[in-house]
Batch of 2 targets.
Target 1
Amino acid sequence: MTNEHLTRIRMRPHWKMRDLCGFALAAILLVAGVTRSPAADSSAISPAPSLLLGAAWYPEQWPESRWDRDLSLMEASHLHVVRVGEFAWSRMEPQEGRYDLDWLERAVRLAEKHHIAVVLGTPTDAPPAWLTSKYPDTLRVDANGRRAEHGSRRQFNYASPRYRIFCADIAGRMAQRFGHDRNVIGWQIGNEYTDESFDAATLAQFQQWLRRRFGTLDALNEHWATAYWSQTYDRWDEIPLVASGGNPGLLLEHRHFVTETWRDFQQVQLEAIRRQADRRQFITTNLGGLAWTDNFDHYQIARDLTMASWDDYVGQGHLNAARNGAMHDLVRGWKRAPFWVMEAQPGSVNWAPVNTTLDRGETRAMAWQAVGHGADAVLYWQWRSALNGQEQYHGAIVGPDGEPLPFYSEVSEIGSEFERAGAALKDTAPVAQVALLHSYDSRWAIDFQPHNRNYDQLEVLLDWYRPLRAQGLTVDVIGADAPLAGYKLVVAPSLNVISSSLAKQLLAYVQQGGALVLGPRSGMKDEYNALNVQRQPGPLVEPLGGRVEQYYALDGTVPVSGELGAGTADVWAEQLSTRAADTSVLLRYGKSNGWLDGQPAMITRQVGKGRISYLGAVLDANLMRSAIAWMTQTAQVEAEFGALPEDVEVCRRVGRNHSVYILINHASAAKEIHLSAPMMDVLHEGPSVTVANLEAHGVAVLEAQAN
Ligand code: GAL
């Protein structure tokens, strides 16, 4: 049976996409006749180190006679994992229904000989030419109505039922072959889900999706307030699919639809793999866009995967340690578990305005930062550049001649350190007393209507994050609806969407003894992106005993002072009021536009066994540091490490009976850190030390016996 046969299976209206693909896959399995490879013995798993360094390797781009040399060089630089296959569809299925996975099997075996484990990527980010030219409906259409073409990647239509059948087929065939392979440790589905489609069939799916979500047009019209500008819909097929500028309710639901469509796209392959693969093999996808991208809700996408992973690039310039650390913490929050950095920059990239190279030692600092924040593996993209193709200039580990580039020496150093530190880091993870809430709904809601183009949600998040990290605290960045028990302090800058159910959950946390601090723009919208009928923070006005009287976009600074210190607000200021006798004012605005003068900028109230506070302004760094110090003291957050010099970061991973501290010097001058108690120097195999001397970009990995 070929794909052609499969596509003849007519779609019945009541079949969900998943049913169809499941059926298609079952049909494939019936006829394919599985031959298990000689290595198909799941009991004989080669012991991989617990901390892995690796690279993206593309054996399909090179003569087979070259592979052994590549793998020898990798082994010599202590690389223990390669990701293979994620763009190799035209090699795996050169013609429709004609498969060749033998070369891939030979690559997996050869890697094993060199003690290198394999993560297999399904090639669905780059469909072969035969597929899209024969079935053009598998190509996506952009918001301007232009259909994508072959010759690049990501040209497929994520909502196309036909494309998903092909995806399930190739993923299923790979899983048949490698699902029990002892040297295959995991799977990556596709590559960096990116572009949506605006074709007519996808629009019809969107309209059906809205019907399921709202049930009736009356409900939709009400939640979207469509009486405004005569937007009222009388038929589902009147509803448009717009990329920007539409009704905020519609725009938010489009993001939800995009999320669910990617989730279904992924689910089809997940099921195809899961059906045949050993449970020990993880299934992930490498989410890109420097982790902050929000074209879909990453919590939903990660929910179905066994592990989160992301692609960590700097681009032009140098590592921004706080930003990058926050992105690791965000990724760790997708599944609230350790994760992998599936791609990292080998010195430089090819897509920045100026493709500068990281300083010698900076990539090592970056690798250890990833581990400190919860990564169990770091893979460089890529081992060697293809001789032609769009990424000839990208950084790599070996050159076009196949011999080590200067960067190879730094890779070898990191690899050998990962080997040394693996035992100490095994079964450890960051453990936080502080959580920072993050929500895609809130991000979308604000970005559809920023009101001040300078309100950059990532910058606001970092304003709160930086002083927490400067205190040496581990910070979990988690979804707004994640469980909060166990956190001493929960902060929520820009939590724009607060539904009544989320408000209940937050209030329960406070009543049971938690300290919740809401930041500017919180609680303005409900889950349909409609204005909450209460002022901000919406359903939390009552417990807060205060509210936002009015918000102001600022184009200059406003003085702010109070018991937490004095400074300024910029970009955004909310005029607060207290409405309960026991709500106290911590900060007030000074002379400004008349409306803000003398009005509260930050208020707080004890509620149940806990406390709820609201800070309505974007403060300068000094005053923000004082505000965060007040928050951590009031919430009785305990120090995790002693004082740190500027530009030195500490990360802590906690195990059953020990903790590992990773100290990273992000400065280009040496730093000396005195430890409060002796610790084992893991990278130097054991001596007990009381001082850590860190050269420029230097790293120390220290083990303490107690937590
Ligand atoms: C990533 C992508 C890789 C490679 C890399 C270059 O976004 O997943 O395939 O293109 O960028 O930096």
Target 2
Amino acid sequence: MTAFPLPPGSVIGILGGGQLGRMSALAAARLGYACHIFAPDLDSPGMQVAAHRTVAAYEDRAALARFAASVAVVTFEFENVPAAALEALAGLVPCRPGLAALATCQDRAAEKAFLDRIGVPVAPWRLVESEADLTAAVAALGLPAVLKTTRMGYDGRGQAVLRDAMDLAPAFARLGPKPLVLEAFVPFAAELSAIAARGADGTIAVFDPVENRHAHHILDLSFAPARVPAAVADAARAHAAAVADGLDLVGIVALELFLLPDGRLLGNEIAPRPHNSGHWTMDACAASQFEQHIRAVAGLPLAAPDRHHDAVMRNLIGPEGLDAWPRLLRMGQVVPHLYGKAEARAGRKMGHANRLLPHGSLAKLTDKAALGEL
Ligand code: AMP
């Protein structure tokens, strides 16, 4: 039986070996814990810094059972871990977040129904199982609209913007697995995200909401804090807290939001794990999103989510991202991070860099001035 809070020296199990697992394991080490990473690939960013490793398929029940026996608690670093793996572990060891939170966030339709239920507005949407459904959904929502898979979509994969009637059949044929969802196109003024941690006792701590910019569907920049009126930032925080409560989460959750030109917010996606748009917290807050995640999972008190600096985060993507590395190392007030990936393929997240700015200064800066040489 696991007793919480976990004493120093305990082993935390992490499903998934990507950079989010790597940075979680590093944060755990600082708090005196060791991490055991379970992932299908030895050559992964998380494995490089893990104290213990299991290289096995998520479907390998025997490996999952051995893993469960070797750890005090299990968490995950990406939400596409098969729910069956977490289900198999749940009977053997505490899992934080649990299966219900994971299942809600793995399915876009379930996620939207959940946001509707807890009172976070979302863009009008319809479930689409057939071409006839799609025709009816387009008649109801109008064009343009965005057709998305319900599962396994990330970084813009598994979606298509429909602009006219000719686009419907090819997009329906291309996207899968079915069912799909059709969403009204949102003419957003900005994309925001807010990250909330929730402890086992229900305490919630929310980081300042940030403004995100994408390039080729991949997060490129985050500006922290978002340059929005205080009422909008408060609403974003309240929505993220409502999501953490509604999921009965123990851990961390990111809520991606669209900001409409009239100041209203619409929920888009939920990720029940550390999030790329929270990497700025590593250098601009006393405790990062990864430390908050580990604190929640280990049953420790959450840290104050205050920021001591404003920050701009840039993702280092593909070979071009790596080319910037020597220059970033020479810059003052810039903290670079690399994930240890051997091959810099196009579109691959290789690392990120945080530019620190004096607290409260970002609101007065243009994007160009905020970025500086970043
Ligand atoms: P998602 O996979 O849902 O996070 O979508 C990836 C990106 O596509 C978002 O960050 C937006 O930039 C864009 N996008 C997604 N859904 C919509 C929508 N309904 N209207 C306009 N843009 C969207």
